[in-house]
Hints:
Layout: E1 12-16, H1 18-25, H2 31-39, E2 43-47, H3 49-64, H4 70-85, E3 89-91, E4 94-97, E5 100-103, H5 107-116, H6 122-133, E6 146-149, H7 152-160, E7 165-167
Parallel strand pairs: 1-2, 1-6, 2-3, 6-7
Antiparallel strand pairs: 4-5
Amino acid sequence: MSKNNSFEVVSRNYFLDTSAIVKLLCTEAGSEKLKALKNYPGSNFCTSWVLLSEAFGVLKRKWMQRELSDAQYEERVRLLFLYISMGYLDPVDVVVADGHPQLVTYEFDISSIRADHPGLDAADALQFKAIQQGLLKYLAGESRPRLVSADVELLKAAEVEGIPVVSVCNDA
Length: 172
């Protein structure tokens, strides 16, 4: 604590993969752990537009397989749009070039990540590059972004790449 009795809230940055985004919207094993991260003072959640698209696909699959009712599906889609529009879930892979928004794809880097980790798909590899080469690369210490996922193989590969991880496979 400083001499003026104030305290500094440390920013905690979390990069949510698709599995974590879905746990934010649907009650599953690991959802409580994710909510605890969300409620930590200074927590920031970010992701990729590609992963947001995947999350919409997962919600659609859950609805089509009747894991979600029509009302539950609509509620979760609205909630996801709300999180995006309010900046609560911030996509970090868009830049403005020549006055137009563009998705940063890292397509050449994705191939090299997949060569080192053949079990990862392109969206998995994109996460690594968004964390390692995007604006997030400038964050350090406690603010350094952590990849949040329930995908055990993705978490293992992230650790090999030097990316801090948070597993939300369960609530422990």
